[in-house]
């Protein structure tokens, strides 16, 4: 039996690795996500049954189950040097002259690569297996980030065997965060009152150094290989051959790598990318030019810190001048007052910029930005507009320093300085400005997802005192809404319906939506999983909270403070919200049954009903056949019903299905 299991496990691993490669490295998936998940689930189950067969390079081991304890140090067997920078074509030509001189008349060529804005790591493979990974650190000793790097899907845990697998291969490359993921991460961080990363490099570095690999795994890091460290045997005489060998080993290599016969072609490639770079899905901060032949690199050698055979060409950050029309203060959902500059709109790196955050009042003081000032703006990491410099020589006479507010601009309550002393907050928990932000967050996509409850409507609901807290949303009647701006019968119906629908959101989303300080989507998931029901969560004590792995004392303290201040509101919300009950233990109530669902259901989303079927031991299928045991039909079912009738397959309604599960909670 174990032999069969071993064979099947190996087969599954090979297949999954192949699909990982197609998906993450080549971007050419051949299998549906569902098909992949099925193979993965089968492997996981087999490994659970045969723990002795689990190996560290199995695809199931990408997410470490336990947080790592801190980072050990790893000494690089070949030092990781840094690179000299250039900023213009003349400097590149001077580099080329040094290379020509160093090579004493030999012919040479270059390879030009994108300089990805992430952080360098070194991954060690032994016998083709991922062994460990380290950051560059000081170039000699780096941090052991093995567990976190293992979660990066484009990093193979086992090399492919199309070429002979080297005994030792250290692969060096860049870990980075694609722009889209960076923007989404920052949005989530902001909503959770956590630190905003200035650029994708900081985000990638911060993510790689998280102590909990599960969080790393949830953030979308990627990897591209561009050099070899220690090698038991050479992979080629030219850099291009090394990269080709990497590809054959299943390692991700950037497709935009070009050979240049001389420095002029290299310069042309660099300038070309300077113009095209905004079209990439990740940030680059320049280009890297490398001598192609490995033997020639050895001749050129290195200065103390950087090799003489490569150089970076750094793009200038795009900056433009504009004028500050006004400065206003915004109140965030946690009451933080943020100064924001309204700018005369300008084009910058592909978008129109009309506002720039001034972050906080310390920063505003330091930069001394005033209304009417001419300022230079730049996108931090090409994304977030920032004021980098004030052109004081153009300051209009009489422009005054912006005063630090003593009162909240929304509710004129007094403000208090945060413990850390940087932020200023409105002291009024019922501040309407703050309430609006809290409601926007509550109704937002990752939380209660009340689609029709947009910003303009929230403003009106608060300004007309119809809504003073979250619970008031659920008391709204159609007649309350009609008469508000742009609110006809139909829109009012839609709003009420969307609010009704949100009453059944999962507990994790409700907890996230409350906007408790330090509690974001991820911690909300953990809390929901731990407590299962809303009342159980509400009854949690500080002691119980800190006992949960992942919930630190700051979070626990913040939750208790929220309970203390808002218990009345929570009690009220409890009356309206009915999240689905926690997932129950697997049962065998539907064992061996193949079930098809059609039409829209009242109490289950598609995903939820599928989960319910699987949990009860059944199989959820998408098409009706003779093998189907029964069809669950909701409202406006499609042609599946007809087919079921034709084949004589039993059709039941949602209630009958719930009764079968004995799930009275729904
Ligand atoms: S080669 C001896 N190639 O740039 C240096 N580096 O500023 C070998 N980087 O620490 C590095 N893209 O993190 C190389 N295609 C690329 C790169 C690249 C980004 C980073 C790397 C390095 C930094 C130096």
| Terminal CA distance | 42 Å
The percentage of residues in β strands lies in 15-25%
What structural class do the secondary elements suggest?
Answer: alpha+beta
Number of helices: 24
Could you tell me which ligands this complex binds, including any ions or cofactors?
2-(butylsulfanyl)adenosine
CATH class of the largest domain: Alpha Beta
CATH architecture label name of the largest domain: 2-Layer Sandwich
Q: Could you give the order of strands across the largest sheet?
A: 2-11-10-3-9
The CATH topology of the largest domain is: D-amino Acid Aminotransferase, Chain A, domain 1
Mean pLDDT: 88
What gyration radius follows from the Cα positions, in whole Å? 29 Å
Provide the helix percentage.
25-40%
Low-confidence stretches: 64-69
Q: Main β-sheet: number of strands, strand sense, barrel status?
A: 5 strands, mixed
Count of individual beta strands? 22
Q: Which overall shape is indicated by the principal axes computed on the Cα atoms?
A: globular
Q: Give the CATH H-level superfamily of the largest domain.
A: DNA ligase/mRNA capping enzyme
- Tally the structural domains: 6
């Amino acid at each position: 039996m174990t032999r069969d299991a071993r064979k099947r496990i190996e087969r599954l691993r090979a297949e999954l690795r192949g699909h990982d490669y197609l998906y993450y490295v080549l971007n050419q998936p051949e299998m549906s996500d569902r098909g992949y998940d099925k193979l993965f689930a089968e492997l996981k189950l087999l490994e659970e049954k045969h723990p002795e067969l689990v190996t560290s390079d199995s695809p199931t081991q990408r997410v470490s189950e336990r947080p790592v304890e801190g980072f050990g140090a790893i000494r690089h067997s070949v030092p990781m040097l840094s690179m000299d920078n250039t900023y213009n074509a003349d400097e590149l030509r001077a580099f080329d002259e040094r290379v020509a001189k160093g090579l004493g008349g030999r012919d040479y060529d270059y390879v030009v690569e994108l300089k990805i804005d992430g952080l360098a790591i070194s991954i060690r493979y032994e016998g083709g297996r991922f062994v460990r990974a380290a950051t560059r650190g000081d170039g000699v000793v780096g941090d052991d980030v093995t567990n976190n790097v293992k979660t990066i899907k484009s990093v193979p845990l086992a090399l492919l065997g199309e070429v002979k697998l080297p005994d030792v291969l250290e692969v060096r490359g860049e870990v980075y965060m694609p722009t889209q993921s960076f923007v989404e991460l920052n949005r989530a961080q902001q909503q959770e009152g956590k630190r905003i990363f200035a650029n994708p490099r900081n985000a990638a570095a911060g993510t790689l150094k998280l102590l909990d690999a599960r969080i790393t795994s949830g953030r979308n890091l990627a990897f591209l290989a561009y050099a070899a460290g220690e090698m038991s045997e050479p992979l080629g005489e030219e850099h291009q051959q090394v990269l080709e060998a990497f590809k054959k080993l299943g390692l991700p290599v950037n497709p935009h790598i070009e050979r240049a016969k001389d420095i002029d072609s290299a310069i042309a490639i660099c300038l070309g990318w300077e113009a095209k770079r905004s079209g990439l899905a990740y940030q680059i901060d320049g280009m890297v030019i490398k001598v192609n032949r490995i033997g020639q690199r050895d001749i050129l050698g290195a200065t103390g810190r950087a090799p003489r055979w490569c150089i970076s060409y750094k793009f200038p950050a795009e900056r433009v001048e504009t004028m500050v029309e006004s400065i206003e203060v915004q109140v965030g959902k946690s009451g933080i007052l943020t100064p924001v500059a309204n700018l005369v709109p300008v084009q910058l790196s592909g978008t129109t910029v009309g506002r720039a955050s001034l972050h906080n009042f310390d920063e505003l003081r330091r930069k001394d930005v005033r209304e009417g000032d001419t300022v230079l703006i730049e996108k931090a990491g090409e994304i977030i507009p920032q004021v980098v410099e004030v052109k004081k020589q153009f300051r209009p006479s009489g422009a005054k320093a912006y005063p630090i507010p003593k009162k909240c601009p929304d509710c004129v309550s007094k403000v208090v300085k945060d413990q850390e002393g940087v932020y200023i907050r409105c002291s009024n928990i019922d501040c309407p400005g703050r309430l609006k932000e809290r409601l926007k967050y509550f109704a937002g996509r990752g939380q209660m997802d009340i689609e029709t409850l947009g910003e303009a409507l929230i403003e009106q609901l608060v300004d007309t005192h119809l809504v003073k807290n979250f619970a008031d949303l659920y008391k709204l009647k159609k007649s309350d809404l009609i008469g508000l701006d742009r609110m006809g019968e139909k829109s009012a119906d839609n709003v009420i319906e969307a609010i009704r629908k949100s009453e059944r959101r999962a507990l994790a989303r409700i907890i996230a939506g409350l906007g408790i300080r330090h509690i974001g989507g991820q911690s909300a998931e953990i809390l929901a999983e731990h407590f299962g029901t809303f009342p159980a969560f509400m009854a949690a004590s500080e002691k119980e909270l800190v006992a949960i792995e992942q919930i630190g004392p700051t979070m626990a303290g913040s939750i208790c403070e929220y309970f203390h201040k808002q218990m009345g509101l929570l009690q009220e919300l409890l009356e309206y919200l009915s999240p689905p009950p926690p997932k129950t233990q697997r049962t065998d109530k539907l064992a061996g049954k193949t079930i098809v669902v059609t039409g829209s259901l009242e109490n289950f989303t598609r995903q939820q009903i599928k989960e319910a079927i699987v949990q009860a031991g059944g199989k959820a299928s998408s098409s009706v056949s003779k093998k189907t045991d029964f069809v669950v039909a909701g409202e406006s079912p499609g042609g599946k019903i007809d087919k079921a009738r034709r084949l004589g397959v039993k059709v039941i309604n949602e209630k009958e299905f719930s009764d079968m599960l004995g799930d009275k909670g729904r």
